[in-house]
Amino acid sequence: MADGKPRRGRPAGGKPVLTRERIVTEALMMVEQEGLDAVTMRGLARRLGVDAMSLYHHVDNRETLLNRITELVLAGIELPPGTGSFRDDVHAMAQAFRRVALRHPHSAPLVLTRQLGSFAALAPVEAVLSILRDAGFPPGSAVHATRSVLAFVIGSLLREVSAGPTFSGDDLGGVERRLAELRASGLPHVVEAAPDLAVCDHEEEFEFGLDLLIVALERQLQRS
Question: pTM, whole model, 2 decimals?
């Protein structure tokens, strides 16, 4: 008689055979649903309905699992074709990163912290470096610029996914209360900018910040 416990090495109840792809896909879903801190080998095994030890046949440990999650996120980037225009190519690449980050907002920050060596992980880095090197950036400056673009994309993402309905403008009553609060501050420039401070169009904010970043990169290129 079955005891209801997960089976070692093979999922219970006729579920699909355990593979690294299935483990990593489930781990990515776990991050998005429960947060990065919730991801443990035991917790993931429970979600998969297997014994925790069976996971180690496919991934060495949690650190390896986080690397594989990051690779899966990066592999989802649809690299845009180059146009030869520095501004257009940086813009298109940043938007490609943003689209993936919005699909996986809780996993995307891993891109900034994991040092990976696989083709899937390095292909997007190569694409950005190619744009910057073709424009004339030295290798070291191209690396700094790449990290700056990634930090901007991820930073914008974290603000966007953390914003409440008031900040996004969906809660009209909340927006009105925020407007009243800002206007009551007595600070002249805050009062003047209150309608803009009270809400945030995330797409508009991203485009504005990205344009500033591209202009800064162009000026840096002129000085180098």
Answer: 0.81
